[in-house]
Amino acid sequence: MSLTVADAVDYKGHPADKSRTGGWVPAALSLGIEICERLSTMGIAVNLVTYLGGTMHLPSATSANVVTDFMGTSFLLCLLGGFLADSYLGRYRTIAIFAMVQMLGTCLLAVSTKLPQLQPPPCKYTDVTQCEQANSFQMGILYLSLYLIALGTGGLKSSVSGFGTDQFDEKNEKEKAQMAYFFNRFFFVISTGTLMAVTVLVYIQDEVGRSWGYGICSASMFIAVVIFFSGTKRYRYKKCSGSPIVHICQVVSAASGKKTAKLPSDISLLYEDLPEASRIHHTDQFRFLDKASVVTEDDYRQGSFMMNPWKLCPVTRVEEVKKMIRLLPIWATTIIFWTTYAQMITFSVEQATTMERTIGHFQIPAGSLTVFFVGAILISLAVYDRFIIPLCKKWRGEPGKMNIMSASFVETTNDSHYSSNVFDHFLSTGFTNLQLIGIGLFLSAMGMAAAAVVEVKRLSVAKKYNETTTLPITVFYLIPQFFLVGAGEGFIYTGQLDFFITQSPKGMKTMSTGLFLTTLSLGFFFSSLLVSIVKATTGSSDKQGWLGEHINKGRLDCFYGLLAALSFFNFGLFLLSAVWFRKKTVKQAPVTEIIVKESTIEEKC
């Protein structure tokens, strides 16, 4: 029995000793970074819109776009962080560097919210159009701090979970079980950080001072970094293997350069240099990419064969790209969910600021209403895990067996011995990953419909009491929209992550996380775009339109109705995409006997 891990080294670069490196404790040290990242990002995002409107005196729609642009950039930069980690820095250095960057950003944000020189003069009017807006210098400092935080978030989110899994040896059954336990707790840690952000941190921002709230974020990240560095000698480190993005670009470049080349009638003539056990069988879909594997005279120099990965790619590399392309319809139809999510931390929080929020002598901070959102996530996951899965087990018979519906979603080509240990219970019991995504999309559409109905009620009250700062309508009317979209996230987050991990090719597993995170990024950016379009088309110089300076004078209900309609339409497109994907997946899989024994998948061809 080997005492070292084959593909990992210790901090000195020697083969990693199993008894001295890795395991649950080193993996847990990275979770502190994740908690602080969630604390900073969500603690800022859920309450930023009130600061932009109340202190910086920005219009309602502008404030919402600042928040969604910040969140969209945070998730988009995950691609940069993943690229640097895979190709140059490694996950350890990426986490260390970007944690420092985020700490610097939160520190600068704390300073900018403390110094009066970095804010416009206070204003007694409730209508921000009558107040002096923040100037370009003040906004510049605010943007600098926000986008430093976004940069830090991008680097951390792309590497923390991967670095945690690096601490376990998948070939060791005991460590494999520990890795599953780590991932099962990872989403709980994310939710815990978010819960602390929307309750404790938001309360400190509103009642003690924003600079205190952001200062706590900076101090907690510093402590987490110190704890992270304390485990340096116990970590296992994986060597940089290259970015899947580069591999995709190589296939596209090679196929484009040989667009005039003729495909051979015999596919065995296509170039392949990988060993038989690692190969992926050729498929007829997206045949134009097969030209990247056609050997031409240009691949020979002075009579000898010269393999340039930008001009010639093996069939397996091409098939990996094809697999990623097959994921794109599902990927595209999940973007709209995160657009509805964006409304929960922007316009829904603005709604809360105008409503009655007191319980006895305690006033609930507007940003803390998102606690119902986080609570819905935890409740939905608990109900699914404790009630739905046991019912499915009972309905299907013995708990260890997989029915044909679940089995059809497992890739059974030559490279398909990979199966997600993290989410085995979702594949073998309960709903499939696509069903989980569908449930999440439907719940979010219902949430937007509920939000539109509630806003009609709120606006009717606002018209009767238009001079009142706080409307005589309880903020708890907003609970249905928070709860439905929150429950939707509980299902779609799990389903998306499972889908992209299990359906992406083995050589591009890191790319699967990037695909998932880009749906969040594009969802936030689409929210900003949609707000800008609606504001421009429904408003004018003498008319506010649906979205404008103050939500009491607009038609936010129409905007929510539009989002509900788009969400239901997108849900229909998702169903079509899911049917197409499953049809293609089943068709491409060779005849394979699948045997399931206690969550282990074996193949016999």
UniProtKB/TrEMBL annotation:
It is found in: Membrane. SUPFAM superfamilies: MFS general substrate transporter. Its main location: membrane. One of its GO terms (molecular function) is transmembrane transporter activity. InterPro entries: MFS_trans_sf (IPR036259), POT_fam (IPR000109), PTR2_symporter_CS (IPR018456). One of its GO terms (cellular component) is membrane. It comes from the Eukaryota. It is a multi-pass membrane protein. One of its GO terms (biological process) is oligopeptide transport. The keyword Magnesium does not apply. Belongs to the major facilitator superfamily. Proton-dependent oligopeptide transporter (POT/PTR) (TC 2.A.17) family. This is Major facilitator superfamily protein.
